[in-house]
Design goal:
This protein is 28% helix and 19% strand. By secondary structure, the chain is an alpha/beta fold. It starts with 12 loop residues before the first helix and ends in a 9-residue tail after the last strand.
C-alpha cells in the first residue's frame, strides 16, 4: 500500500518549519536569479528525488546507461557521497572505492566502457568532462542525485518517488524525510513511481495520479525492482545458488536508507530472516565485521548471508571476515522493470538525447574557451514572473549564464504518437544533495 513506510515525528515539526524557511529563501534566490543556474547546450539528464535516500536512484541511472550506452558515449556525474577525495575525480582502472564513493564505484565496475566521475561542484564537473582529454567525446551526461543541485538546470529532469513513501503524505526534515516541499515536483519533466507492486489495478493508478496531481506537461511512469539471482560476493570461495525461491536461514545485512522493501521480499522466501541494519553508506569498521562474524556463528544452520550490491562493495574491502562468512555471503542484484509504457519512456529519452546531441561539439568548444555556459534564447515570461529587461536580451559575459525559471519547451518529437512534450516550469526551493 502506498505510504505504508511513512513515519512522521510530529514533535519535530517546529524544526521542520524553520527548515522550510531556509528552503524557501534558497528557492527565492534561485527563482529571482540572485543565485545563478547554468544550462548547457548538450544533453544532460538529471535523476534525483525529494526524499532522503531510498527511492532507487542508482538502479534507475543504471537503466538509463543500459538503454543508451550501446550507441552513445555516456558520462555519469555524481557527488561521490562519503568519499575521502575532494574536487573532480574521474574513475580509472585502478581507482579505489574510497576515492569516488560506493555507488559510483559500483557503476564503474558494472560499466567499464562509460565515464564515471564525481564532483560536488556539478558545473565544474560538467565543464571538466566536456573539455577533458579523456572525456571530451561524451555524448550525454547523467547527473546522479542532483534534483536539489540547482546550480545546473538539466535539459531533462527525472524525479523518483517511492511508492511506499508518497511525497504528498510526507513532511519536511527532520519530522519527515522530505528535503524540500512536495511542490518541488513541478521542476520535473518525468516522474517515476518506483518500487511499485506488480499487481496494481487500474484504480491504483488513478489513486496515485490523483495523489501526485501532476501538470499536463509531466509524464508519470511506474517501475518495480526485480531481484536477479544471488551471486557470491567471493566467487572463488562460495558456491552458486541455483534456486533462491526457498532459502534456509538468511542473515540480511543492509546499509541502505530504506531496507523495508528488501526485508519484506526475503521474509516470504526463506525459512528464517535475521536482519542486521546499518545506516546508509555505512563504512564497515572492525567492530562491525566482528559483529557480523559473531551473528553468523550464532544463527541456526544451514544459513547464508545476503547483502545489497553497494554494501557488498564495502564489505569486500573490509578486513576480518571469517572463512565461514566469506563462504556464505551473497549479493542480491536488482534491476528496474517498467510495469507499463516502457517503450514510450525509452522513446522519450532517446529523442531528447539525439535531438540535443548535435550541440555536443559546439559545447565542447565553448567549455574549452570559457567556463560560461552558452545561453538559450529567453522565452516570454508567464504571468506573475519578472519581466525581462533589455540587459537580459543581450548575451554578454555578464549575463550569459543567467537563465529564466519560466517554462522552456524541450521538443522530443511525436513520431507515431509515442513522443511526449517536455516543458520546463518554474523552479521551487531545495537544498543541494
Amino acid at each position: 500500500m502506498e505510504g505504508d513506510y511513512i513515519k512522521i515525528n510530529h514533535w519535530l515539526k517546529p524544526l521542520s518549519w524553520l527548515y522550510g524557511i531556509g528552503v524557501w529563501i534558497r528557492g527565492f534566490l534561485f527563482d529571482n536569479r540572485i543565485i545563478k543556474s547554468k544550462e548547457y547546450p548538450f544533453p544532460i539528464i538529471g535523476v534525483g528525488n525529494i526524499t532522503v535516500g531510498g527511492s532507487g536512484k542508482t538502479p534507475h541511472v543504471e537503466y538509463l546507461v543500459k538503454i543508451l550506452h550501446e550507441t552513445l558515449q555516456i558520462a555519469v556525474l555524481s557527488r561521490g557521497y562519503k568519499r575521502k577525495s575532494k574536487g573532480f575525480v574521474l574513475a580509472k582502472r585502478d581507482t579505489q572505492m574510497t576515492e569516488i564513493g560506493d555507488e559510483p564505484f559500483q557503476m564503474h565496475r558494472k560499466f567499464p566502457d562509460i565515464h564515471v566521475a564525481v564532483d560536488a561542484n556539478r558545473c565544474r564537473g560538467i565543464e571538466t568532462i566536456m573539455s577533458g582529454e579523456e572525456t571530451h567525446n561524451t555524448d550525454v551526461i547523467i547527473l546522479d542525485d542532483a534534483y536539489q543541485h540547482r546550480y545546473v538546470t538539466p535539459g531533462l529532469n527525472i524525479l523518483l518517488v517511492d511508492y511506499h513513501r508518497l511525497i504528498s503524505n510526507d513532511a519536511l526534515l527532520p519530522a519527515g524525510r522530505l528535503r524540500e516541499p512536495a511542490s518541488a515536483k513541478w521542476r520535473a519533466d518525468i516522474v517515476i513511481m518506483t518500487k511499485c507492486p506488480t499487481d496494481m489495478k487500474p484504480m491504483d493508478y488513478r489513486i496515485l495520479q490523483r495523489a501526485m496531481s501532476l501538470m499536463p506537461f509531466q509524464k508519470m511512469f511506474y517501475t518495480t525492482m526485480v531481484q536477479k539471482p544471488l551471486t557470491p560476493l567471493f566467487p572463488r570461495e562460495a558456491p552458486e545458488i541455483r534456486d533462491d525461491s526457498q532459502l534456509p536461514t538468511v542473515l540480511l545485512i543492509t546499509g541502505i536508507a530504506s531496507p523495508e522493501h528488501m526485508i519484506a521480499d526475503f521474509e516470504g522466501k526463506c525459512k528464517r530472516l535475521v536482519p542486521m541494519r546499518f545506516p546508509d553508506h555505512h563504512p564497515f569498521s572492525a567492530s562491525d565485521v566482528e559483529a557480523i562474524n559473531m551473528q553468523y556463528r550464532m544463527i541456526e544452520k544451514p544459513a547464508i548471508i545476503v547483502t545489497t550490491e553497494k554494501d557488498g562493495i564495502r564489505l569486500s574491502e573490509a578486513p576480518g571476515l571469517t572463512t565461514a562468512v566469506r563462504q556464505a555471503i551473497y549479493v542480491q542484484p536488482i534491476e528496474v522493470q517498467f510495469i507499463q509504457d516502457e517503450e514510450i519512456f525509452i522513446d522519450t529519452i532517446e529523442k531528447y538525447v539525439h535531438k540535443s546531441n548535435r550541440y555536443s561539439s559546439m559545447a565542447t568548444r565553448a567549455t574549452q574557451q570559457s567556463s560560461i555556459a552558452v545561453p538559450r534564447p529567453t522565452p516570454l515570461p508567464r504571468e506573475g514572473q519578472p519581466q525581462p529587461t533589455e540587459r537580459d536580451a543581450v548575451p554578454n559575459a555578464e549575463n550569459s549564464n543567467n537563465t529564466w525559471n519560466r517554462p522552456r519547451p524541450i521538443s522530443t518529437g511525436n513520431q507515431g504518437g509515442t513522443g511526449i512534450p517536455i516543458q520546463r516550469h518554474p523552479s521551487f526551493p531545495g537544498f543541494d544533495s
